[in-house]
Amino acid sequence: MQEDGLFKELIDNLGEGIYILDRSRRITYWNRGAERLTGYSRDEVLGRNCAGGLLQHMDPNGRLLCNDGCPMEATMRDGREKVAELFLHHKQGHRVPITVRAIPIRGIAGEIVGAVEVFNDISGQVLAAERIRELEALSLIDPLTGAGNRRYSEIQLTSRLAEKKRYGLPVGLLFVDVDRFKSVNDRHGHAAGDEVLRVVGKTLANALRGGDFLGRWGGEEFVVLVGGLEKQRLTEAGGRLRALVASSSVPAVPGLEVTVSIGVTEARSDDTVASVVARADALMYEAKKRGRDRVVGDAPI
Predict the structure, then answer these.
(1) Which of 16, 73, 117, 220 is catalytic?
(2) How many domains does the chain have?
(3) Which domain holds residue 14?
């Protein structure tokens, strides 16, 4: 019995998130790592069905997996371990990139009685936090969202346009605008508006690759700089960001739907900061005209 207690204590204190489901997909165990990585306490999740809008696992293409493609359901169905990179829905509303290992649990007779998931945050938050502290000292970070501020965004864009002109390196600009943001402030107050910006900023930041850049251009507008992608892939990347934001939530305002409209363009060799931003901005407004919560780019999606 002492060994069982020691084993449980060790599992409970691992850095990885670990939870166990029974065959009905009810959560029967939730360690402290899972609490830390998701924001949900053990008491909030034990006994709940994982498909009931809790973690809402999403693949990198923006497809929700709870009812189709869930690694835990798949491993209980065929008895094989599953490994994937996904996004989970944090209690605070934003999306978090994770690696997932789903492993079947077998009973005495070899029958599958449940599954265990082991997951890790792969957003590099520790390194990002250190970098943020460095940049804050240089007044380059937006204090509300943690994204680069307008000044830093212009510095980054100027640098990447110079690389484009000198070396021909592809540079994509995604101009992101939060839909109906004024109505959020008017109906729910500026504190709710600030929370929307934080959720959108964190979701976008967590979805970017290591060399990409996120900046807050002003108000409810963000810019994303992406390198190494062709026009069609840039537009697809915009669609991925749009889907991730649309599946996020704002805990302070339950039921509030947050969406973004995105204009996507590829920088040209003769572009200036003003010209490339103006082109992406115009494409973003075209997305608004077409009904919001969509992406319009140089290449059709």
Answers:
(1) 220
(2) 2
(3) 2-121
